[in-house]
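INFO  loader      accepted 1 record
INFO  loader      residues=286
INFO  predictor   begin
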Amino acid sequence: MKVHKWFILTLLAIVLWGFYGVAYNLAARQIPALPNQVLSTIGLLLPALFLIPSVWRERGRRAGLWIAFGSGLFGAAGNLTLLQSLRENGQTAIIFPLTALYPLVTVIVAVLFMRERAQSIQAVGIALALVAVVLLSLEPKANKVALRFAPWVFYALVALIAFGLAAVFQKLATNRVSTGAAFAMFAGGFIPGAIVICSWAGFSLKFEPTPVACAVIGGLFNGLGVLATLAAYRNGGKAAVVTPLAAVYPVLTVLIAVTFLGERLNAIQGTGIALAIVGALLLARE
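INFO  predictor   done
INFO  writer      dumping tokens
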């Protein structure tokens, strides 16, 4: 039985994205969100450097390049609020399945403003995603369960929205430029925020080497995961297969978080995570 190259690349993306959440968690335990954002940006930019020639070749397609840059601005905002969510003691096993629901925002925006029609399977995904958001926002207290938007929930939902808008801009960009050039400009969209943080809030590396390395590795794994999916598309993988398959990466993140980070989940949270993963899978169908 022949294993296609695109399938191997998609599995690689799942592994990279599965571990990037764990790396972020380990970094967020000791590094505040702002310096963490700068460090993860460094990691993200490393694979983007190899795609600069794509940007140069397509420099005449300015609209597409600037749209891709705009997607990076939203991506940076989502990354920062994701890190703050972890910093607010949110569990990795909950935050990453929750933020992986960003296609919910993408589909809604596409239907309302881009005149696209949602498929019936995506409508089911929207319903599951909304239920998952509610379940993951519930917090058990004594013998009852209450809906309380703790700070980590708020930041995670902001990240979800920002990632969804980033995906919208990325979709518009890839209609005008190659996926490689779009990703390079997306990564470039993280630079202004990092510059502002260094200039306004200051930046210091007075942290232990291990969390610093985890922050950089988290950004690197995120970027390499994107490159792996782009390579899967280039090697014969169909978007209708690769995108939903890659969307199951939170399963790996949850397994690692529960097994090695000692995170504990109750039945309601476990149900919410399962619905979030299934919902993300359905929303990613095209």
